[in-house]
């Protein structure tokens, strides 16, 4: 009888232990919705894919609406985490939003590969975009009218570029486009065009200029020698708690052990 009692007690203990372990290892489920910067598409895509791989019960979504769109979306509760390729403005912080820097990105100034110009300083770039210089021959290029390509109002890339070059509200754009990809495609198709785009998105179809003799690379962004750079930030509401799934992604994205994923996306991790 005593042996039977001992067996029952051990069985009950096993059931309890199994239950406790199951509770501790319960898989995270739910949806994580992000919205915002098109420049952050690559890094968020890499992080989102790795996060979903590690958390099979979670669905991760990204809506590329631009920085201002993402900030508005999180403010209105239409997404969990907003994505901005510029720092929050004072009025946005005062409205109850907070930012966490995920990474730093260089803004590459790009021209068509057939353009002989390879280096410009920040002052000359500003003169081009404000219309003070209108012909490529004045900066070492062909005798051709400069075609200024940029992003739409509200773009984090545009805000960052104009702030650094001190050209806010002064740029004489020929075309204002709604995504990083559109800028690159347009410049790639026009030998007289100049544009700006996230470093992580620049490929072989365009040529990234050196700025003041410094090439836009992960190393020069990290050491601060490349002049035109900006933060990639995660935007959340101060008074709203994230869901378990969203908080887990937020922590995952900022974890030091995942910095390599951010580097592979072509930007410099903040941690």
How would you describe this structure in keywords?
D-Maltodextrin-Binding Protein, domain 2; 12 strands; 10-stranded mixed beta sheet; two-stranded parallel sheet; 10 helices; 2 domains; alpha/beta; 271 residues
Tell me about this structure.
The protein has 271 residues and is an alpha/beta fold. It has two domains: 114 residues, D-Maltodextrin-Binding Protein, domain 2 (3-Layer(aba) Sandwich), CATH 3.40.190.10; 124 residues, 3-Layer(aba) Sandwich (D-Maltodextrin-Binding Protein, domain 2), CATH 3.40.190. Helix content is 37%, strand content 23%. It is built from ten helices and twelve strands. Strands 1, 2, 3, 4, 6, 7, 8, 9, 11 and 12 form a ten-stranded mixed beta sheet that branches. The protein is elongated. About 8% of the residues have low confidence.
The count of β-strands is: 12
- The CATH level-2 architecture of the largest domain is identified as 3-Layer(aba) Sandwich
Cα(first) to Cα(last) distance is 62 Å
Q: How many domain modules?
A: 2
Instruction: Identify the CATH homologous superfamily of the largest domain.
Output: Periplasmic binding protein-like II
Q: What's the CATH C level of the largest domain?
A: Alpha Beta
What is the mean predicted local confidence, pLDDT?
91
Secondary structure class reads alpha/beta
What low-confidence regions span 5 or more consecutive residues with pLDDT below 50?
A: 4-25
Biggest sheet details: 10 strands, mixed
| Percentage beta strand | 15-25%
Bulk shape: elongated
From the 3D structure, determine the CATH topology of the largest domain. Answer: D-Maltodextrin-Binding Protein, domain 2
Number of helices: 10
Rg is 24 Å
* SSE arrangement, N to C: HEHEHEHEEHEHEHEEEHEHHE
**Approximately how much helix is present in the residues?**
25-40%
